[in-house]
Structures are given as C-alpha cells and as structure tokens.
Design a protein that fits this description.
Blueprint (H helix, E strand, L loop, with lengths): L1 H6 L2 E7 L9 E7 L15 E4 L4 H8 L2 E7 L5 H5 L10 E10 L2 H14 L13 E13 L6 E3 L1 H5 L4
Antiparallel strand pairs: 1-2, 1-4, 3-6, 4-5, 5-6, 6-7
C-alpha cells in the first residue's frame, strides 16, 4: 500500500455530494496528491492535497469530511509494462477510507514540500483561490494486489513500513 501510494501522483477522491441534483450520492473527483518527494525514501505514507473551497468536492467535505481515496499502479508505467489491464488485481490498487483535514501550521511545511516537489505548477496557482494544505486521515485500508479478494491493512501496519 505504501509503495503504490508513493508512486502515484494523483488519486480518485470520493465524497458524498452536497450539490443540487446529486445530494447524498457518491461523487468521485481526481486530485493531485503526494506523500513526499519522489525517490525511494521520500514518502511519509500521508496523502497530502492542495485544496480550495471553490472546488465542488471540497464543498462536499465541508459538510461531511468522510471520503475514500483510490490509487492504482495503472497510473504508473508498471501495468502497461506487464500487460495488465487496470482492473486486473495484479495491477494493484489501494482504497483508503477516512477523512480530509486541514494540516496545522507545524505540518504545513511538510505538506508543501511533498506536493510542490511533485506538482511544481501548484506554486503558481491563483492566490485569490485561497489554497490550503490538507491530508487524508486514514482510518481503513483495503489492498487489491492479487486474485482472491481484498486484504485489510490497519493504519498501524501501513505506517510501520517504508515504501
């Protein structure tokens, strides 16, 4: 799970919609993310995001901060290289459940370094959008990396390993 997250630059974040016509329905949206600078030892395992209240999924999160986040090796060259369809379990994907929280001042520097090292364009995004750093607070993890069903990984297990 740590390996997959660290090698993905974006994920599908699902919220419960608050938008007219979709209220209460699942709503998935793509977000750039990072758990740390690229490289073998750069990942903290914490998915950081750069968000604005103008974004519709963030508006959903203001009402209900619970969400799920999916990342997959299909986002990297790995699956194509091995001839795996993105739905093939050997093209591993991870589903995180938890909540989105704004990072505090002491963690903002870490989040900034993690995100801007992978997504340098973010630094020039419009200042009047009031961007802020947030993290995905992981409570449950499901790993699909082989045939036979999901594996459940606890956050404690997840954070105890390096990618």
């Amino acid at each position: 799970a740590r390996f997959v997250l660290h090698h993905c630059d974006w994920g599908a974040l699902a919220t419960l919609s608050t938008q007219e016509g979709l209220r209460g329905h699942p709503f998935a949206n793509i977000f750039s993310l990072s758990d740390g600078p690229p490289g073998p030892f750069g990942g903290s395992g914490v998915p950081y995001l750069y968000l604005t209240d103008m974004e519709i999924s963030v508006q959903d999160l203001e009402v209900n901060s619970n969400a799920s986040l999916t990342v997959s090796l299909a986002q990297t060259p790995f699956c194509k290289k091995h001839g795996y369809d993105p739905q093939n379990p050997l093209c591993a994907h991870i589903i995180f459940c938890g909540s989105i929280v704004k990072v505090n001042d002491s963690e903002a520097g870490l989040a900034k370094k993690a995100l801007f090292s992978r997504h340098p364009e973010m630094e020039s995004w419009p200042k009047d959008h009031n961007w802020f750093f947030a993290k995905f607070n992981i409570t449950n993890i499901w790993v699909l990396d082989y045939f036979g069903g999901l594996k459940i990984v606890t956050p404690e297990e997840y954070y105890s390993v390096k990618p």
